[in-house]
Design brief:
Elements (H helix, E strand, L loop, with lengths): L1 H10 L25 H18 L2 H5 L3 H11 L12 H15 L4 H6 L2 E3 L6 H10 L5 H13 L1 E5 L2 E3 L2 E3 H23 L1 H15 L6 E8 L2 E10 L6 H19 L2 H16 L13 E6 L2 H10 L10 E3 L6 E4 L5 H24 L7 H4 L3 H12 L2 E3 L2 E3 L5 H12 L7 H4 L5 H12 L11 H25 L6 H12 L3 E3 L2 E4 L2 H9 L4 H21 L5
Parallel strand pairs: 6-7, 7-9
Antiparallel strand pairs: 1-4, 2-3, 5-6, 8-9, 10-11, 12-13
Helix pairs in contact: 2-4, 4-5, 7-9, 9-10, 14-16, 16-20, 17-20, 19-20, 21-22
């Protein structure tokens, strides 16, 4: 029964009769002429093949690949036509199947079944290797690359990677994708900005928090503006859902586009004020600075909480010294405030970029060495406060909120921060500690105010007074100190390195004193008095508002 089962399975219906007994010559008939070597070979092959068909499948599999190839060479010879009544075409196909079960890489058997190794095509494997090595590819090509890579055997054979056998139709589909990859690769090699952009998109996609937001992006080189919906990314389950998601993304793109003009105006302002005068290096195509705009306050706070950095209620945005990204949220009811915040945080980003670009070697800690905190925040505050006129954003305008803070400080009869102390502050933590110790000696605490409470007030004063002091240095008496603050700015971008004959790094405080010629306590006191008069004039000119 085993042999009959094999016959039904392998032979198909009909035409698989047992081998006939050798024909005997009739009495008196002449014997048949001797058979030629070709006929004997064909006969032997026929006997082997018939025996295999009537035997168990397992017995056929015990035959060596070499034996089966010998049969193939015979049955594919011209003489196979003489074996009338035997379905050789069908049985050849079965034999090829058996060969592939013994050796899936059998070249002859694969080709006979219409399958071809990819390496048979000129230049294919060279392109495929580059494709598989590519670190960043478009999302649709990346999915196909992973699928293709899983089909390729990484075992070594004759020093080459083994490739799958494919049909002609499948090869044509693969060729289309490889052609797309080659076009993408040519564009990528000629456009480093694209490489950086794709790396950023992959970084976002893999981010444990940002990767869950649905976001669109627009580029105003060197800035890339991401605008993120609070709605999480969802797979499109239906055409209706896909249409709804696309409509949502169009709305996000329109909102992101609102801020393109501001970014362009900010870059033009920077070129006029600092990039050209200080001869700062031009932006390279691969230089990209990122800003992430959350759709609303809730998603901004949600991100901060998940990152372990809860944001205080007054904070609208910040620049991360670790990721070097700016984060803000969009307030639909107060776009002026959003634009002020965005200009502030992008100034931090530009400050970091040019500090990195002008310093050889690894970038130093952003807050500790590149500048004092008064300068970092004062510069961003000075640039950030603006107004829109005739469709253009104007920067370095009067800040009513900061003036109100200074009004309140004066009304409370609390002291302003001495300039020498202000320029010494290298970080928020050091400023907080200094403010507590300094205020402990002031009469304010004798009135029952707690040191922590007053120190918290002075964090707001730090921003307000740094803004006013930067206004003073740039605008007082038509720019009396503008050349010096520009020199100080250039020094800060080099981390105050190699300052006028002094080797190594100097502190921000020492650099400020050297550039402004402040050698004695009396010099600092004179600058304090001059700034105090300027500030009094501002407070008289702009009364406090609600």
């Amino acid at each position: 029964m085993a042999g009959l089962g094999a016959l039904v399975m392998l032979g198909g219906g009909g035409g698989n009769e047992p081998a006939a007994a050798p024909e005997a010559s009739a009495p008196g008939q002449p014997s048949a002429p001797p058979k030629s070597p070709a006929e004997l070979k064909l006969e032997a092959a026929e006997k082997w093949w018939r025996a295999a068909l009537f035997d168990d499948v397992g017995q056929l599999q015990k035959s060596s690949v070499e034996d089966m190839h010998a049969v193939l060479k015979t049955v594919r010879a011209r003489e196979y036509d003489k074996l009338a009544g035997f379905h050789w075409k069908h049985k050849q196909d079965l034999l090829f199947k058996m060969l592939l079960r013994l050796d899936p890489d059998d070249l002859e058997a694969n080709r006979a079944r219409g399958r071809i190794p990819l390496t048979d095509f000129p230049d294919f494997w060279d392109v495929a290797k580059r494709f598989l090595r590519a670190k960043t590819v478009p999302e649709d090509l990346e999915a196909w690359r992973n699928e293709f890579d899983g089909r390729v055997d990484f075992r070594k054979q004759r020093g080459k990677r083994r490739t799958p056998f494919v049909t002609q139709e499948e090869f044509e589909r693969i060729s289309v994708r490889l052609s797309r990859f080659l076009a993408y690769e040519r564009k990528l090699s000629a456009d480093p900005q694209l490489a950086r952009m794709l790396a950023a998109l992959k970084r976002i996609k893999l981010h444990p928090i940002l990767g869950h937001y649905d976001a669109v992006h627009r580029t105003v080189h060197p800035f890339v503006i991401f605008y993120a919906s609070r709605e999480l990314v969802q797979r499109n389950e239906s055409p209706e859902e896909a249409a709804r998601v696309e409509a949502k993304r169009r709305a996000l793109r329109e909102r992101a586009q609102r801020y393109e003009g501001l970014v362009k105006d900010l870059l033009a302002f920077w070129r006029e004020r600092w990039i050209d005068p200080l001869k700062l290096p031009a932006f390279k195509p691969e230089d990209l600075l990122y800003v992430w705009i959350f759709e609303d306050r809730e998603s901004f706070e949600e991100y901060g909480a998940k990152m372990g950095m809860p944001v205080p209620p007054y904070l609208m945005g910040y620049f991360s010294p670790t990721s070097h990204w700016a984060f803000v949220y969009d307030d639909q009811k107060d776009r002026e405030r959003v634009q002020d915040t965005l200009a502030h945080e992008l100034t931090h980003a530009l400050h970091w970029h040019f500090s990195k670009a002008r310093k050889k070697g690894p970038i130093l800690n952003y807050f500790k060495y590149l500048q004092a905190v008064w300068f970092s925040e004062g510069w961003a505050e000075y640039v950030g406060w603006g107004k829109t006129r005739n469709g253009k954003r104007e920067f370095a305008q009067i800040s009513r909120p900061r003036l109100n803070s200074l009004h309140q400080l004066k009304q409370a009869k609390l002291p302003f921060i001495p300039i020498e102390r202000l320029v010494q502050q290298e970080s928020y933590h050091k400023f907080w500690k200094w403010a507590r110790d300094w205020l402990a000696e002031e009469t304010a605490l004798e009135r029952g105010l707690e040191a922590d409470y007053v120190a918290k007030i002075y964090l707001e004063v730090l921003y307000a007074q740094s803004w006013a002091f930067m206004m003073f240095l740039y605008e007082h008496e038509g720019g009396k100190y503008r050349d010096r603050i520009m020199k100080y700015t250039g020094a800060s971008l080099r981390a105050f390195r190699l300052m006028e004959g002094k080797q190594g790094y100097v502190s921000a405080h020492e650099a400020f004193g050297r550039i402004f010629g402040l050698k004695h306590k009396g010099d600092w006191k004179h600058l304090d008095n001059e700034f105090g008069k300027y500030l009094d004039g501002l407070l008289r000119k702009y009364p406090a508002t609600n």
